[in-house]
Amino acid sequence: MKVKYFADTDTALVEFTENEVTQTREISENIYVDLDSQGNLVSMTIEHARTNARLQEFSYQEVAGRA
Asked: pLDDT by residue (tens digit) across 18-38?
C-alpha cells in the first residue's frame, strides 16, 4: 500500500494494488474509489484531504491476529 499526498491540490491518493483501473466510483463529493475488472479496490482518492482525512495525524499500525 502506498499513500501519496499532493500539497498543491490537497489531494491524497491511497494505492492498494497496481491492478489496472477499469472503473471509478464517486463515494461522496470528495472521495472516489478505483476498481479493477473484477470489482476489487485498486485505489482511493480523497480531495480536500487535510479536512476530510485529517492527514496531519497519519499513522500506520499492524495488528497481529489471534493465535
From this structure: 999 999 999 999 999 999 999
CA distance 48 to 38: 29
Residue 50's region, left for phi above 0, alpha for psi from -120 to 50, else beta, is alpha
| Spatial distance between the Cα atoms of 1 and 60, rounded to a whole number of angstroms | 11
DSSP string, 9-64: TTEEEEE---PPP-EEEEEETTEEEEE-TTS-EEEEEEESHHHHS-GGG------P
Cα 2 to Cα 44: distance, rounded to the nearest angstrom: 11
Single pTM value for the model: 0.80
Q: What cell does 26 get? A: 464517486
